[in-house]
Amino acid sequence: MEWLYMIMPISGVNLFWPGLIILGLGVGIIGGFFGLGGAWMVTPGLNILGFPMAFAIGTDVAQMAGKSLISTMRHAKFGNVDYYLGITMLIGTIVGVEIGAQMVMWLERIGSVDKVVRWLYVVLLLLIAWLVFADVAKRKAKEREAKKKNQTLGKDATGFDWGKKLQAINIPPMIHYKQADVRCSFWLPIIVSLFTGWLAGILGIGGGLIRMPALVYLIGCQTHIAVGTDLFEVAISGLYGAASYTYKGRTELIAAIIMLCGAGVGAQIGVVATKYVKGYGIRIVFGLAVLGCLVSVVLKLLQAELPAYSTLLGALATVDVLSFVSLISIYITVRMVQGAKAELAAKKAAGN
């Protein structure tokens, strides 16, 4: 089975290359659907497949930039991208990315990068999962309350209404983002992007893991607009991050290209699927994907703490991340096909 492995020329890692294809295709579908670079799955996935954490981060940032650019162009055709909001957020993102990247270099020098980054992932994934499912539960409670009063809850109603409260903070200059239909202080997206940019740099993510929920819950965007706008921002910040990590010698370009080939195809499927799955449908699947990624990271942490079970836990972590990416990708693809069939049937019926 040696043909299933290849030596990476820069890192020297003997890598299971089919895992790269599965990750690339799967993260393309998932990233296009959720509006994320997908690094919250790919960085730990590459680390689990054998890359040192610094190389996993740099390689993932490189493939993420290209895939997100493809997804952004597709979302733009559906009117899901607010370019002005995305450009505003770039200001804080670029500063945050460089701060995070410098922190990774420092952690690598003191030999703590793997452990620190994995624990940061655990904390972040737990917070995001709680946010998504608490919001879903709160919205369902509002639906039940409205039903008791013989009322119908609006389609745009959310569980948490933090966005409206933050939009009401009047700190000049106030900006109206037309495509997102949001009016808020110019400083709100700047602060959000500074924090997500720092996460992008230190965790090797495009920031989308937290920026997409932040666009929805803190800035008040509709979910499909948050998806498209976030991908635009991920693409631009990812290009900067890729250049930064490549300059530092932590990007395995061959692995990035292999993943990008699959991701380019997968992104088309994921983006089209958002046409048929809206709002809370996207959020629930997103929450499940976060939980799946969390399990793989915890297994990798246990592997370091329990050396006697290292082989078993490492294998379980690999199976978890690859199978979960595959299952979520299949679900999204099936929903896209079902939606397309229903749309064609409706058009055919209307024609008759």
From TrEMBL:
Signal sequence annotation: none
| Location of the protein in the cell | Cell membrane; Membrane
* Keyword Transmembrane helix carried by entry: yes
State the UniProt keywords alphabetically: Cell membrane, Membrane, Transmembrane, Transmembrane helix
Q: How does it sit in the membrane?
A: Multi-pass membrane protein
- Pull one GO CC term from this UniProt entry: plasma membrane
The organism's superkingdom is given as Bacteria
Q: Does the keyword Metal-binding apply?
A: no
Q: A Pfam family in this protein?
A: TauE
The primary location reported for this protein is membrane
Q: Where are the transmembrane segments?
A: 12-34, 40-62, 83-107, 119-137, 186-210, 253-273, 280-302, 308-334
Which family is this protein grouped under? Belongs to the 4-toluene sulfonate uptake permease (TSUP) (TC 2.A.102) family.
Name of the protein:
Probable membrane transporter protein
What's the source species for this entry?
A: Candidatus Desulfovibrio kirbyi
